Amino acid sequence: MTEPRPGDHGIQPAQEAGPPQGEQQGHGTPLHQHGIQQGHSDQSAGPPTHFTWEEWQQFQRSDLGAGGVVVALMASIFTIGLLLYGTITYLIIRS
């Protein structure tokens, strides 16, 4: 390896554009990293929900039903493959 030359400081990080973290921009709301606005609210954390509790329950029931159908289809495909394999093996041994 070569020694660094005097005045050579290697790779320098890029300067971020825009105001420093915490300064106000636009509508008077402080911006933090990646443009996420921090405000005070009485609502719980997270994005607002667009569905009622009953709709979420219906989605979960629907997902469970669809999952059961997927498992049944996979089991039937496996069983058909096993029967084909067994039939071919039997025919080869018999001949």
Structure, explained:
This protein is mainly alpha-helical. It has a domain of 26 residues. 44% of the residues lie in helices and 4% in strands. The chain has a two-stranded antiparallel ribbon.
Order of helices and strands: EEH
Query: What is the end-to-end distance?
Result: 71 Å
Counting DSSP E segments of at least 2 residues, the number of strands comes to 2
**What oligomerization state is this entry in?**
single chain
The number of distinct helices, counting runs of at least 4 residues, comes to 1
Read across the widest sheet, the strand sequence of neighbours is 1-2
Estimated share of beta-strand residues: under 5%
* Gyration radius, rounded: 31 Å
pLDDT < 50 stretches? none
CA-based shape: flat
Helix content: 40-55%
The largest sheet, given as strand count, sense and whether it forms a barrel, is: 2 strands, antiparallel
What class, by secondary structure content?
Answer: mainly alpha
Mean pLDDT: 76
What's this model, at a glance?
The chain is mostly helical. The chain is 44% helix and 4% strand. The protein has a two-stranded antiparallel ribbon.
Helices and strands in order, then pairings?
Blueprint: E1 24-25, E2 29-30, H1 53-94
Antiparallel strand pairs: 1-2
Kindly list the characteristics that best describe this protein.
two-stranded antiparallel sheet, 4% strand, 95 residues
